[in-house]
Specification:
The complex is a heterodimer of chains A (189) and B (185). Chain A is built from eight helices and three strands. Chain A is mainly α and 189 residues long. Chain A has a three-stranded parallel beta sheet with strand order 1-2-3. In chain A, α3 crosses α4 and α5 runs parallel beside α7. With 185 residues, chain B is an alpha/beta fold. In chain B, strands 2-1-3-4-11-10-9-6-7 form a nine-stranded mixed beta sheet. A two-stranded antiparallel ribbon of chain B has the order 5-8. The chains are: A mainly alpha (189), B alpha/beta (185). Chains A and B meet through α7 of A and α2 of B.
């Protein structure tokens, strides 16, 4: 959600035939969006920065929480569902299956093949790259390299080869230097 | 125990791998030609067929799959890749997105040949068979059109049997793998 129009309610996505992709920064937010009908989840990162650190933070938050849910017993899962403000049946499904019930990709700050491979290694189902490609010196070549790095994310030889000779990366913004009100990731709840 | 490769360059290879493991097979994710060595069968999953085709060309997997002699099971995009206009391994012509765009995706009960219980077919931007060779056998149809077919050592589905809990289509593929292994032995 880049520009919220309603500060209190999220859209009831079950009413639509077109699939919705929703962002999240933590597991509770992800499960609330899924219960509202999201067809895919993206961990938010900080869009338009070329700084991967927030994408990593949000993936760690979601995937780490999934692992912790797997360690809880039945009784604890109810209480945890309350903490997460998420439906108990979804929480139980995640605990049993070790993943979210929808495709979970990552975005927000990916600018190099290495960034993409890192996200895949951390457990993303895929990556979305926007300005990291379009604001770089050679978008076509960089896009191809990022695709290859995503497929061969665990193959260091491929990653080293496709990372060479790509020209200038987008000029990045460190998210640590952005004022809190400038951050996109804090929009939504 | 059979060792089955799942082409893992793009698409929903994870669901196929999980289904095959559930049925007791050993699974290898295939991203490079040498990973085809020693496999008893190969699954080409659904995904985006143009992306899969480009990625397999880039790494010499196109030739390697053409040389591969064991059974191959293609679903959705995998069916497109195996048809006359792509790898040319199955005597079939298919139309991409033949049932319509993403919003036209649907589920339907299918009759699986030789089985009473209906098979739930999940069709996601599914390819549609427009022509099939005389040797091709239809194993399931939807509204009179073939959606699960066998051509010798090849099995192709326009739907996604890996997305339900019904293991029967994958069981048939593993059965085909065992038959072919006996023929070749």
């Amino acid at each position: 959600m880049l520009t919220p129009a309603d500060t209190a309610n999220h859209i009831d996505k079950w009413k639509f035939t077109v699939p919705f992709v929703c962002g999240c920064t933590n597991i509770g937010e992800a499960l609330r969006r899924i219960s509202e009908g999201a067809a895919m989840i993206r961990t938010k990162g900080e869009a338009g920065t070329g700084d991967i650190v927030n994408a990593v933070t949000h993936m760690r938050a979601v995937f780490g929480a999934i692992k912790r849910l797997g360690a809880l017993d039945e009784t604890e899962l109810y209480s945890e569902a309350k903490n997460l403000q998420a439906p108990a049946e979804l929480v139980r499904w995640v605990a049993e299956n070790g993943r979210l019930p929808v495709v979970t990709f990552t975005a927000g700050g990916i600018a190099t093949p290495a960034d993409a491979a890192l996200c895949m290694q951390l457990g993303a189902d895929g990556v979305f790259v926007g300005s990291g490609i379009f604001k770089s010196g050679n978008p076509e070549q960089r896009a191809k390299a990022i695709v290859e790095a995503t497929t061969h994310y665990a193959d260091a030889d491929v990653l080293a080869r496709v990372s060479q000779g790509l020209g200038d990366a987008m000029s990045g913004l460190s998210t640590a230097t952005l004022a809190p009100e400038e951050l996109l990731e804090t929009r939504g709840w | 125990m059979e060792t089955i490769g799942v082409l893992a360059v793009q698409g929903n290879f994870r669901e196929h791998a999980a289904m095959l493991r559930r049925l007791g097979a050993r699974v290898v994710e295939v991203r490079k030609p040498e990973q085809l060595d020693g496999l008893d069968g190969l699954v080409i999953p659904g995904g985006e067929s143009t992306a899969i085709m480009r990625l397999i060309r880039l790494y010499g997997l196109e030739e390697a799959i053409e040389r591969f002699t064991a059974p191959i099971f293609g679903t959705c995009a995998g069916m497109i890749l195996l048809d006359r206009n792509h790898l040319g391994l199955v005597d079939l012509a298919v139309e991409r997105n033949g049932y319509g765009r993403q919003v036209a995706s649907f589920e339907a009960d299918l009759r699986l040949e030789g089985d009473e219980e209906p098979l739930r077919g999940v069709f996601i931007r599914a390819p549609r068979v427009v022509d099939e060779g005389p040797e091709v056998q239809t194993l399931a149809s939807y509204e009179g059109e073939p959606v699960l077919l066998r051509d010798g050592r090849f099995l192709v589905a326009s739907f996604h049997p890996e997305l339900t809990d019904d293991t029967r289509v994958h069981e048939r593929f593993l059965e085909l793998v065992r038959q072919e292994a006996n023929v070749r032995a």
